[in-house]
C-alpha cells in the first residue's frame, strides 16, 4: 500500500464523521462531460438529495432529485419487528421521504438486494409486494436494480424524483425563524419500543403505534404545500427531531431552541407511554414528517393546511460562540433547559 | 405471516431466477404521478439501464439513464486481489460500462457504503480516490450517497447518465446480424487468475493483465461510436462473452454462433496463458467491452474505428425449436461445436 492507513477506524469517527470526510473529498469535484454540462448540478452532497436541472418536455426548467438509502438486517431492522411486506414499504418510503423533504415527487426507483443464499424466494416476493404498494400509493415505479449474493441481507433503494419549484434545502434557516414539523412525532419509535418490549400487547394504541413504525407515510403532500407556501428550508425527520434539527442548524450556521411542551404527541402515544412519550417525541426517528423553518408569518398560516399533528415546536437562534452552530437547546414551559440522554443516534456510536 | 413461504430458496433458483421473478412482478407497474407522466419511461427492467425521457435545457428531447451495481467483499472481490483504490475505480466503472452500453455518457453518481466498524478510515478515503480518478477520466461527479454499518463490507453505486440518441438495447438482434465486440476479451479474467494463482509473477504480460483486472476502462467512446454508426443492439460484457451473448439472444428471441478463432485475445494474454487463453476469452467477465450486433454492412465499417481488439466474433441465428432462444453455440475453425465448462457464472450457483 502506498499510503498511510493512519490510526482511525470507522467506529472511532462514526457514520457522520466518515460522511463529512468523504464529502470534503468529493464536493465540487468531477469534471464536466457533455452530460454534466447539459444538466447543471444545483445541490451537491450534504442535503437530503442531490439535485440537477433538466428540461421538462414542455420546455420548462425542472429540478431532478436523486437519493439513496439502505437497510441492513440486524442494524436497521430485524425480521421479528418488521415483516417482509412492511420492510419493502419502509425501504422505499425512506427515500420517498427524502424526495418529499426537497419539495419533490418520486418518479423511478432501482432496488438492490444483498441476499444470503438461504433466503426464501417467497419472502423476497412478499417484500416486493410492499414496495409495489408504496409505489402505487405514491405514483412511483420500480424500474430495475441488482441482486447480489451477500452473507447479510440488505436492501438499497436509489430513487429519482422531480421538483418544479426550487428545492427545499437545509441551509436556509435564519435567527428568528419559527421551527415547525408537519405531523406527529415519536409514534414510530413508540411502535418499535412496543414491538421490542411487549410484542403481544393489544389495543387501539398498540395497533396505531406498530402501524406507525411499520408503514410510515412519507410527507409528499406536505412537501408540496411547503414549497408552494414560500418555505425554503426543510428536511425530513429520520433520526429524531433534536438530532435532525441539529443537522439543519449546522447546515444553516445557526442554533435553535425547542419547546418540549410544543412537540406534537399523538394521544395514543401519550396513552401508551404516559411517562415516556417525551424522549420518544424528541429523539425517536423514522416518523418521516417534515421539519421546516421560516419567518413566523410564513410558517403559521401553513400549519392548519398540513393537517394533524403539525405544529410550531421552536425557534432558530443565533450561533452561540465560536463553533457553536448546530446546538439545539430543549426547554420546558418555564424556559429551563432540559438535559436528554436520547435524541437520535449514530449507528456507529460506542 | 399471511402467505405461503413455498419451498424455494435463493440458492435453488439463482441470482437470475430471482431477478426474472421480480421483474415479472414490477414490469409495467407503478402508477403515474405528475413526475412520472412528465418523464415517460422508455426502458423498463431487463436491460443494462432504465431509461426515461427528459428535456435538454435547449428544448431538445434527451434520454436519461439510471443504473446500479454492487460489490460485496468475499463475493465480488477480495482485499488481496483488489487494492482499495482500484476497488473504488471498479465499483463505479461497472456502472459507467452499463451507461456506455446504452450509448450514454455518465453524469452523477451516489455511493452507498456498508462498513464494518473496524474498517480503516484511510482505506475508505483511498477507495474514494479511485472513484474520483475514474470520475475525472469519464467526466462524472459523485454527488452524495449513504453510509451504513454492516457486518460485511459492500459498495453500491447508483449512476445517472444521458443519451442524446435512442438507447442501444439488448432486444434488437435479428438472424443474419454480425456479432461483434469493441475490444480484447479475457484480459481481466487472466489478471484475476494470475493474482489468485501466482500473485508475485512479474513481467510485461503480468502487469498488463493485472491492470486489466484492476482498472478496466469502460467503453464510453465505443458506445458513442456505435450509436452514431447506426447500431441499435448492444450490451456490455460483464459476465463473459458466451454468457452475456446468451442474455442478448434471450432478450431478442434469437440464438447465435460464436467463432472461437475470432475471439480477440491480446498477445500478452496469449503469451501468459498459451494453453488457457480461450476459456478466459469466451467465459471471463469484467472486460467491460461492448458486445453488439447489426447487419454486416453496418458492423464491419465500425470495427476499425473502435480500435484495438474490436472484431466480428459470430453471427445471430434463428431461434432453435420451441424455447430454444438464447442458445449460443461455439464453433471451431472447421465449424465443429465446442463444449465449454466455463462461460460466465451465476454467483448463487451450486
Question: Could you walk me through the main structural features you see in this protein, from its secondary elements to its overall organization?
Answer:
2 copies of one chain form a homodimer. The first copy, chain A, has 350 residues and is α+β, with helices and mostly antiparallel strands. The first copy, chain A, folds into 2 domains: 49-163, PurM-like, N-terminal domain (60s Ribosomal Protein L30, Chain: A, 2-Layer Sandwich); 178-338, PurM-like C-terminal domain (Phosphoribosyl-aminoimidazole Synthetase, Chain A, domain 2), CATH 3.90.650.10. In chain A, 35% of the residues lie in helices and 23% in strands. Chain A is built from 12 helices and 13 strands. In chain A, the strands form 2 sheets. Chain A has a 7-stranded mixed beta sheet with strand order 8-10-7-11-9-12-13. In chain A, helix 3 runs parallel beside helix 4, helix 3 packs parallel to helix 7 and helix 5 (187-197) crosses helix 6. The two termini of chain A are 29 Å apart. Residues 342-350 of chain A have low confidence and may be disordered. At the A-B interface, helix 1, helix 2, strand 2, strand 3 and strand 4 of A face helix 1, helix 2, strand 2, strand 3 and strand 4 of B.
